[in-house]
Amino acid sequence: MPMDTLLLDPDLVREEAIQRDKERLQGSWNFVSGIREAQMLIVGDHFTVKFKNGDIYLGVYTLDPTTKPKMMDMTIQEGPKKHRGKTSLAIYELDGDYLIWCPAEPGTGNRLNAFPPDDDTRHLCLVFRREKKS
Question: d(Cα 104, Cα 108) in Å, to the nearest integer?
Answer without folding.
Answer: 7
